[in-house]
Recover the amino acids of this structure.
């Protein structure tokens, strides 16, 4: 075959199945949309039928009450007449009482005592013989003046006489009910009886009420309770006719929706798809002609170059406009002289392949680990989503029963609202922690006071605390202390801790929220007497997706994101958070440490003179392998009156700290042999258990700060160090040292 034929085949192989699948998918989508529209028509039909049933049920209920009155039982017709006029009479409905012979005794649209009998009514005898409430089809009113329907209840009085009490409605009553429904103007709503005679109609009621509906609609309604047919309506248009029976009477509600109105989206989309297909085929044909001509020319040039190479010559590449063909011509020219080079290149490619295979194995192993972590989280997420979905499903099924118990309906609605709020909270927590941990949240650096932040956080957590009957003790000793940070995020941190305390503390527990100044920092503590934290979980309590094992006593739910979010937000503020618990059943304490604004060090957050005075002398050690940087910092601190020891590696620092005591250690992280994290852990476990550890490093990411605090550091600085902040730390450490800095241990 020619190149043009191959191109045609390739394009058709790709294009035709794609277009066919697209058309099939579009037809399915349009069919679904059409079915959704028809379902909407069916829902409207059921809604209208329900309204009719409610109207009939109301009439039947009123008649039952009247039939059980003393006036009826004692055949006190005057009193009964007054009661019927008051309760069941309106401009388009009236009450009637018949005797066992079918004669009219009372008619509420006529004065009492006025002869109203127009002769025996045979249908009355049939209604009495049924011995239960019934609803009539459409019939002619008195003397053929109107068309009416009636709700009947047969009665036997104390004297043993039989009567029939009835509420009769003019057909316009139901016509008005149909016209009040919010339906498109093109739809026709009709109501007809078991005999197929129209009772009411939303349009052209004067023409069709009292006449029989289409035979195919009546036949379908007699075969099944509800359904749908396609037929031509009496209004002259083809329609989807959705029908359903009422439960109070042998009536049928039918809604005719024009077929063109339902089908028009599908028809328009079909034309559009056909147009797209024609355009695509036209573009494909033009492309075949153009590209086949270009490719054929490039083949001829390449064949000429190959023949030149076959005869021992060196072909001269000629541009063909096809990149691959031009490359092939140059490859033929260089084939001889580049053979050795190609062999070497093949070996290099083999080595690269081995490297890539090794990288692929490592990547697959990492992906498997991540997949396992994902599976654990998804399992927990599925569990948390099922918890609210179960009561939502039960409540929805309760509402679907259409029960008439207002209290049960209200309770089901409250369950759905409450559980949906829980779902929304889970999703918001997940999105929030994702944004914060990925660095997508910008922290505002405003000057804010502690008092208003605490008050707002308490306000947010108060509903949960009150619902569980907890006693909340608020002790804010520094309401005017100022810090730099994001007010909204700080409120979120404190309210998260309060909500945690409320959720994991048994009912009627005690929660304390305290705020004070300590060592140049604002310290906020949330303490509870709840279930506490397992010692194995405590080191990981701030990790993502980590929670204690669930039990029947600990079913508060959540995704384990709140405390991870707290730690991330605190790190962005240059602060930290710590958790403490003596064990299960012994409560928990979460402590926030936030650096004060430069002007705030007094006990009540007012400007204090200590901020402007030099820090009291302390004895400290600087550990840094960059001797120039260490010596410069040591010189500065010695000029401020401090006693400074300087070492270049971790082992020397451990040896010297074993012989001497220091109030403060300033440690570089990137040390030879042993890094600053490991050195901090060893110092904390040994001679510097109560000293202040300061990390000084070039690593300043959020994870670096978190790792430093996890290793035991009290503070974290990125080079170059903030001298004013260091002065505050040294000033706070001086009272803790408890000795003359120049005197040693």
């Amino acid at each position: 075959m020619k190149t043009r034929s191959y191109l045609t085949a390739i394009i058709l192989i790709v294009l035709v199945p794609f277009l066919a699948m697209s058309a099939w998918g579009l037809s399915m989508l349009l069919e679904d949309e059409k079915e959704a529209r028809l379902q909407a028509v069916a829902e409207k039909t059921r809604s209208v039928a329900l309204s009719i049933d409610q109207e009939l049920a109301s009439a039947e209920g009123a008649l039952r009450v009247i039939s059980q009155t003393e006036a009826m039982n004692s055949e006190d017709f005057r009193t009964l007449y007054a009661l019927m006029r008051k309760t069941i009479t309106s401009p388009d409905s009236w009450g009637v009482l018949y005797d066992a012979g079918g004669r009219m005794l009372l008619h509420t649209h006529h004065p009492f005592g006025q002869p109203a009998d127009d002769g025996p009514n045979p249908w009355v005898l049939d209604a009495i013989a049924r011995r239960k409430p019934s609803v009539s089809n459409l019939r002619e009113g008195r003397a053929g003046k109107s068309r009416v329907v009636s709700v009947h209840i047969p009665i036997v009085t104390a004297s043993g006489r039989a009567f029939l009490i009835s509420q009769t409605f003019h057909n316009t009553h139901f016509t008005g009910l149909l016209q009040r429904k919010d339906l498109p103007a093109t739809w026709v709503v009709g109501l007809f009886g078991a005999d197929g005679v129209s009772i009411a109609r939303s349009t052209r009621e004067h023409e069709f009420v009292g006449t029989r509906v289409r035979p195919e609609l009546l036949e379908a309604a007699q075969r099944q309770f509800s359904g749908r047919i396609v037929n031509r309506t009496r209004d002259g248009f083809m329609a989807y006719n959705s029908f359903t029976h009422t439960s109070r009477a042998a009536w049928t509600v039918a809604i005719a929706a024009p077929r063109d109105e339902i089908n028009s989206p599908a028809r328009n989309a079909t034309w559009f798809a056909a147009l797209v297909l024609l355009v695509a085929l036209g573009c494909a044909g033009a492309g075949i002609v153009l590209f086949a001509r270009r490719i054929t020319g490039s083949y001829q040039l390449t064949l000429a170059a190959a023949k030149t190479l076959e005869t021992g010559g060196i072909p001269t590449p000629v541009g063909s406009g096809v990149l691959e063909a031009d490359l092939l011509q140059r490859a033929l020219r260089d084939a001889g002289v580049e053979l050795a080079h190609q062999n070497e290149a093949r070996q290099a490619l083999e080595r690269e392949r081995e490297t890539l295979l090794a990288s692929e194995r490592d990547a697959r192993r990492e992906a498997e680990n991540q997949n396992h972590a994902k599976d654990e989280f998804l399992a927990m997420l599925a569990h948390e989503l099922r918890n609210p979905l179960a009561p939502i499903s039960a409540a929805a099924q309760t509402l679907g029963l259409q029960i008439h118990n207002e209290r049960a309906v209200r309770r089901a609605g409250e369950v759905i609202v409450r559980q949906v709020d829980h779902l929304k909270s889970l999703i918001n927590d997940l999105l929030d922690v994702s944004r914060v941990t990925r660095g997508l949240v910008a922290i505002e650096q405003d000057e804010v006071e502690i008092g208003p932040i605490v008050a707002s956080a308490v306000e947010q957590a108060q509903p949960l605390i009150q619902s569980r009957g907890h006693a909340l003790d608020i002790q804010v000793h520094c309401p005017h202390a100022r810090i730099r940070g994001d007010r909204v995020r700080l409120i979120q941190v404190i309210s998260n801790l309060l909500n945690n305390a409320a959720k994991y503390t048994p009912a009627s527990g005690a929660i304390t929220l305290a705020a004070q100044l300590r060592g140049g920092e604002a310290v906020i503590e949330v303490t509870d007497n709840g279930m506490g934290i397992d010692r194995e979980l405590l080191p990981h309590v701030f990790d993502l997706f980590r929670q204690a094992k669930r039990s029947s006593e600990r079913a508060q739910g959540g995704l384990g994101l709140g405390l991870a979010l707290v730690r991330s937000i605190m790190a962005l503020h240059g602060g930290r958070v710590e958790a403490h618990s003596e064990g299960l059943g012994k409560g928990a304490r979460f402590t926030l440490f936030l650096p004060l604004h430069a002007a705030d060090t007094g006990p009540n957050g007012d400007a204090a003179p200590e901020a402007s005075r030099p820090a009291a002398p302390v004895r400290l050690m600087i550990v840094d392998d960059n001797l120039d940087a260490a010596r410069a910092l040591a010189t500065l601190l010695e000029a401020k009156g401090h006693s400074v020891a300087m070492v270049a590696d971790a082992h020397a620092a451990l040896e010297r700290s074993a012989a001497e005591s220091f109030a403060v250690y300033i440690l570089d992280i990137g040390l030879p042999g042993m890094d600053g994290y490991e050195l901090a852990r060893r110092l904390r476990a040994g001679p510097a258990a109560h000293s202040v550890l300061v990390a000084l490093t070039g690593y300043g990411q959020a994870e670096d700060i978190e790792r430093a605090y996890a290793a035991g550091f009290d503070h974290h600085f990125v080079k170059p160090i903030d001298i004013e902040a260091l002065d505050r730390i040294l000033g706070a450490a001086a009272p803790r040292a408890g000795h003359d800095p120049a005197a040693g241990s």
User: Anything to note?
Assistant: The chain has a mean pLDDT of 82. The first strand starts at residue 93 and ends at 99.
